Description:
Elements: H1 3-17, H2 24-40, H3 45-59, H4 62-65, H5 70-85, E1 101-106, H6 113-126, E2 132-136, H7 144-155, E3 158-159, H8 168-181, E4 186-190, H9 199-212, E5 216-222, H10 227-239, E6 244-248, H11 257-266, E7 270-274, E8 282-284, H12 287-294, H13 300-310, H14 313-325, H15 330-342, H16 345-350, H17 360-365, H18 370-381, H19 385-389, H20 396-406, H21 410-441
Parallel strand pairs: 1-4, 1-5, 2-3, 2-4, 5-6, 6-7
Antiparallel strand pairs: 7-8
Helix pairs in contact: 1-2, 2-3, 3-5, 5-12, 6-7, 8-9, 10-11, 15-18, 18-20, 20-21
Amino acid sequence: MFEGLTGRLGDIFDRLRKRAALSEDDVNAVLREVRVALLEADVALPVVKTFITGVRDRAVGAEVLRSVTPGQMVIKIVHDHLVEMLGGESAGVNLVAVPPIPMMLVGLQGSGKTTTTAKIALRLKTRDRKKVLMASLDVRRPAAQEQLKVLGEQIDVVTLPIIPGQQPVEIAKRALQTGRLEGYDVVLLDTAGRLAIDDELMAEVAAIRDAVKPTETLLVVDAMTGQDAVTVATRFEQRVGLTGIVLTRIDGDARGGAALSMRQITGKPIKLLGVGEKIDALEDFHPDRIAGRILGMGDVVSLVEKAAEHINQEEAEKLAANFQAGSFTLDDMAAQFKQVRKMGGMSGIMGLLPGVGKIKNQLKEANIDEKMLKRQEAIISSMTKAERRDIRLLNGSRRRRIASGSGTSVQDVNRLLKQFQDMQGMMKKMKKLGQKGLSRQGMQALLPRGLGGR
């Protein structure tokens, strides 16, 4: 998400940083480029106009133009305005209410409502320790209720039993009654969608709202639909009333215009982001962190949170000890691959690191294939313990056996071993640089020569 905008703004601000002083004309020239970048990212024109005006009013002030580092000051002003555009403070799902807390998910057909219902249920169950009941109110789409039931079985969350012929309002009331009688903390109501907004859909959703008075009415909207997503949000807010927005498929939206426009136009906070197809691929929306990602500053806080959530502390400590001792093995490498996959793959991690935008072209040339991680794990699993400890044992016949056992080729095995040797070299560099050297020279100091290293 925001890949195109991040690249454009990165190029603009790199030039800005090199300037020792800035005139008002310089600031205006920069803001013209920022304006074009935002419009190309599919941000709504009224939002772009408000944003540029706000930045200009502050950026042409005397305290900026006389600053020792005016370029950095302008970038900070742009960052602060981006945070404001995205909503300022993060707004999580409201759990401060008398249980069972009714939450209604609304949106068009195909936006990912049913999957998002299951994702929120899993999040509430695992992170917030809530007892959750899910109920499908979609009696029109074939097998919609069955789909939610299957998802519920996958994540071990109860779904309301299906009664054929029962209508949405009746199902909603029954779900809430079941929630009260059986001690549920949260009741998630997955409403029906349509291919387009119509009066029948709005009347149905409004009737459900009036019947259960939901604490949260969350609009689930596909980020890839761009400005159409903003239009849908505006219509639902006017007819039904929303408490927040869940943006899905943001991993496939390189522009990000919907996210940047949504809060400004609807006045409703984006609360959650669907960041992938996996059932646990759901994140809180933090305006300050997103602004940092857009400006190429990374999002280290989110990366640390992901690590805390997915990485086994005992395994991580063992791996760190092996690094320090210089005894990095193929078993350690396989453990790393598993951790990386749990955290969303290489692309998910790299997108959160500061400064990665500057080496994005080299990373593309490196041809990082997410599926390769699984193949490499399979190759390592096909080795004996002795081979994993000492790669010098891997002669031609052993490599052919490993390739056959892992369903790969000898070339794949050779590539893995080359990568392992590169990683060993990186560990040696890290040890040699030390913490100060690493923080001073950054990631590029660790990369091989062809990938930005020295």
